[in-house]
Amino acid sequence: MTTIQENINTIIQGNCIEVLNSFSENSVDLIFADPPYYLQLENDLWRPNQSKVNTVNDKWDKFKNFKEYDGFTQDWLSACQKILKDTGTIWVIGTYHNIFRVGSIMQDLGYWLLNDIIWIKTNPMPNFRGVRFTNAHETLIWAQKSKVAKHTFNYHNMKALNEDLQMRSDWTFSPLSLTTSKERIKFKSNGSRAHSTQKPESLLHRVIMSSSKVGDIVLDPFFGSGTTGAVAKKLGRNWIGIEKDKNYIKIAQKRIDAVKPVDISLIKVEKEKEPRIPFGSLIECGLLEIGQKLYFEKKGNKFAEVLANGHIRYDKTDGSIHKIAGLILNAPCNGWDHWFYLENKTSNRIAINELRNKIRQKNSKAIKNETISKIF
Fold it and tell me: Which residue from 50, 111, 275, 292 lies 20 to 30 Å from 6 (Cα-Cα)?
């Protein structure tokens, strides 16, 4: 059995299933897998001008039949599931040729699917024969190894990347970030692409930023030209790549070696979840009094009264600050954002959220003082 720590930030040459099975269990935080698509291409594709289309015609994409492909898929997914931490997640990318088979096998193995993401391509290859729709997207499945575990999702990072709007499951990237640009690795001898399915760094940037933390271990069992490793290094994550082909390994290692580390403070921007403070704590601490009026919104005449049990009463209805605010708005909401109290019996309305922050600050200071006293 091989420990993950022995292979941190290295590319391992070998069969991914054999290598994965050699690792110890529950040791990887995030897996990104870009497996063979099994495109089943039998003949060359030609454009109307008789120029040949660069398709995926590599040996690693060849299988005898669906049975063989499904067996291969089940083996590598099972191995990934074993080494993935309970809190970890896996991303698998594919096209309509394979992604539905992959998803079915993942569910059969007990993976819990979190999202399917549609990567919309702004420069898709046309359907030259005009007999189908232009295939303009690929699908990513995001899953955790079981339903019960708590996974990493950097919600605020994704919101920031999307101009402070919730990140949706349809992803479009600037054409400047795609592999048709200078990012595409090509052989100097003839200008041909070094890897037929190289993914854009922008895609991996979003995957890694969304579902891992600085210092986490990111593993790619189909490493190819090393996009996962290059982006992981940029973002302060540890990485491990598994790849059969010596030529791909050389390309990937050169690419990753060229990545310069940056100040970790520029990367570690995940917003930590603040400790939960029950509304009742405001009453217990004497910050609010029983019977005190809370006003709905900064302006307006609607108000509720504070009850001894941590609920509030509005128009003869008792409930939590969230339930009563939702009743007024006729929609689910966070009550901390909607209730205000009068400061020192003046007409100045202050958000109850500020009282919650006072408790958090006091708790944080108390924990810090306790830690210092233990040290000394």
Answer: 111
Q: Tokens for 224?
A: 């190819």
Local structure of residue 162 (DSSP, 8 states): T
Q: Give me the half-sphere count of Cα atoms (radius 13 Å) on the Cβ side of residue 18.
A: 6
Domain boundary (210, 242, 266) is at 266
Parallel, antiparallel, or unpaired: how do β-strands 312-314 and 317-319 relate? antiparallel
Phi/psi region, residue 26 (left: phi>0; alpha: psi -120 to 50; beta: rest), is: left
Number of Cβ within 10 Å of residue 49's Cβ equals 6
Q: Each residue of 236-290: pLDDT tens digit?
A: 999 999 999 999 899 999 999 999 988 888 887 766 667 889 999 999 999 999 9
The pTM of the full predicted model, rounded to 2 decimals, is 0.71
CB proximity list for 108: less than 8 A, separation 6 or greater: 74
The reply to whether 54 and 90 lie within a common domain is yes
Strands (DSSP E) along the chain, which ranges?
10-13, 28-33, 84-94, 112-120, 137-144, 170-172, 217-220, 238-243, 293-296, 303-306, 312-314, 317-319, 339-342, 349-351
Q: Which domain holds residue 20?
A: 4-266
